[in-house]
């Protein structure tokens, strides 16, 4: 029986499907068509393909076009953003791919230790493929994947660590990195290793040209693979809260209700006159900055109190939506959002909530479930 989350996700996916019918409006755009063709032409020319996926959605973030490309190049599935996913689930997914004879690797593109280990792994693979070539050869890797899985960030980190390790001089190059999907428009090359020389090709993100699984595309939207404005931050926030409310993640915040007056000092400082002698260094007085710890704490507390005291069935979509509406109303206060105008305050709460989810401030989530035949 479908849960409320399933139903909300499918409706969100239906919205995405409507977008797919209008290719010039941010889905499978003309630049993606051209980029997909260029990538397919280059794949046979590289030694190793690194398919970058989002560790939160290891199946939903598959680069589907790779199924239709015949190549002798070896493939490694790299689960990026593992710092945002359930760590135990990341290990299970790597085991899942291993059972299907697919090499996989978990990484956080912004973690130096992770990148160093990944670079060592890549160099070992390259040397294994070129056993008889000594060190006087050049290997080419290609990073491919859907938008916003961190390909460019990964390319830049590999380039930085690789150049530093080889003590090479000269100006560092940089692939364009953006929190918005679809910002990389061209294929660029960065050197990441010497002896042997290894170059990585960073490529534009390509979305599937057809939609078959509505829930999968709802997950793509929630994790930022398409522009929020095309789907609506309100719908995305509803979807995230439906996931949170049926998870165990919020239960980790129970202790926040023990000292509910923790934020009172903050609010007193924010509202006090200039003559107050309260040590300003104890509290950063930026009530509009929702990423500050005291606001994040209030957000967690608000969400926990709402769901833990809710006595209806969360499997029922109508009941779930009643809870979600109550949570967002509470978040307006937690985020210190002015009460007027009503709709703007609601949308602002949704936007700030999504940002906290996507940056890991509200827990680690793996959204994909294992297929029925996984074990």
Mean residue pLDDT: 84
**Structural class by helix and strand composition:** alpha/beta
Instruction: Write the H/E string, N to C.
Output: HHEEHEHEHEEHHHHHHH
Figure out the total of helices.
Answer: 12
Poorly predicted runs? 263-282
**Strand portion, in percent?**
5-15%
Q: Tell me about the biggest sheet?
A: 6 strands, mixed
Helix content: 40-55%
Shape: elongated
**What oligomeric arrangement do these chains adopt?**
single chain
Describe the fold and architecture.
By secondary structure, the protein is an alpha/beta fold. 43% of the residues lie in helices and 10% in strands. It contains 12 helices and 6 strands. The protein has a 6-stranded mixed beta sheet with strand order 3-2-1-4-6-5. A hairpin with a 3-residue loop joins strand 5 and strand 6 (197-202). The longest helix has 18 residues, at 112-129. The radius of gyration is 23 Å and the shape is elongated. The protein starts with a helix and ends in a 17-residue tail after the last helix.
Task: Describe this structure in a few short sentences.
The protein is an alpha/beta fold and 375 residues long.
């Amino acid at each position: 029986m479908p849960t409320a989350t399933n139903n909300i996700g499918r409706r969100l996916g239906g919205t995405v499907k409507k977008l797919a019918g209008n290719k010039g409006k941010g889905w499978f755009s003309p630049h993606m068509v051209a980029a997909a063709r260029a990538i397919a032409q280059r794949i046979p020319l590289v030694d190793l393909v690194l398919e970058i996926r989002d560790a939160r959605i290891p199946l939903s973030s598959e680069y589907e076009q790779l199924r239709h490309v015949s190549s002798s190049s070896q493939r490694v599935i790299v689960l990026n953003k593992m710092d945002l996913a359930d760590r135990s689930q990341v290990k299970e997914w790597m085991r899942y791919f291993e059972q299907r004879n697919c090499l996989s690797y978990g990484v956080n593109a912004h973690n130096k230790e992770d990148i160093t280990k990944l670079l060592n792994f890549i160099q070992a693979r390259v040397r294994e493929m070129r056993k008889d070539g000594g060190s006087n050869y050049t290997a080419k890797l290609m990073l491919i994947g859907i938008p916003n899985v961190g390909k460019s960030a990964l390319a830049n980190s590999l380039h930085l660590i690789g150049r530093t390790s080889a003590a090479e001089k000269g100006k560092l190059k940089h692939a364009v990195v953006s929190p918005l999907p679809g910002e990389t428009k061209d294929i660029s090359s960065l050197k990441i290793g010497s002896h042997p020389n290894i170059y990585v090709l960073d490529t534009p993100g390509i979305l599937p040209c057809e939609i078959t699984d509505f829930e999968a595309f709802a997950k793509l939207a929630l994790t930022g693979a398409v522009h929020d404005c095309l789907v609506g931050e309100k719908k995305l926030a509803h979807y995230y809260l439906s996931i949170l409310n049926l998870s165990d993640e919020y239960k980790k915040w129970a202790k926040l209700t023990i000292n509910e007056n923790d934020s009172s000092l903050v609010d007193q400082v924010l509202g006090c006159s200039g003559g107050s002698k309260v040590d300003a260094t104890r509290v950063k007085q930026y009530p509009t900055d929702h990423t500050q710890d005291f606001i994040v704490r209030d957000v967690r507390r608000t969400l926990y109190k709402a769901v833990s005291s809710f006595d209806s069935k969360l499997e029922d979509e109508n009941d779930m939506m009643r809870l979600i509406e109550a949570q967002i109303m509470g978040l307006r206060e937690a985020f210190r959002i002015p009460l007027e105008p009503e709709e703007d305050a609601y949308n602002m709460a949704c936007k700030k909530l999504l940002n906290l989810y996507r940056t890991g401030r509200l827990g680690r989530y793996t959204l994909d479930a294992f297929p029925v035949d996984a074990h």
